[in-house]
What does this fold into?
Amino acid sequence: MDSKKLQQLIDLAYAAQANAHAPYSGFKVGAAVLSKHATTHAGCNVENAAYPLGQCAEATAIGNMICAGAEEIDAIVIASPNNEFCYPCGGCRQKIAEFAADSAQVIMVTKQGERNVLTMADLLPYAFRSADLASPQ
It folds into this structure.
């Protein structure tokens, strides 16, 4: 991905982060997905007083991508609210793996703009995917 496109994706994640609903933790996260069709989709975390009912930023961005008709992730950016990288939780790693190839980029950015770029294979080796559901012959 060229640096201009990457910066646009990072800016989109930061913009989504500003709209996060995090009244309980104060931990506002934004995410932005670049689909294989070069469309972008953003999301933020949405907390709920009943904690298990909240939704992560990555899940929101992926849901928005699917709603728009795209089905494959080329890259995803996750914007942290502080100066530490915000790695996706286990559930979000699986959600990303559902729509991303092992080579898809997962880019974490801090509040100060530091970047950490991994591939999906780095983030979730041996991911469980739909092909694993095939019946043994």
Strands lie at 30-35, 40-44, 73-79, 100-109, 115-119.
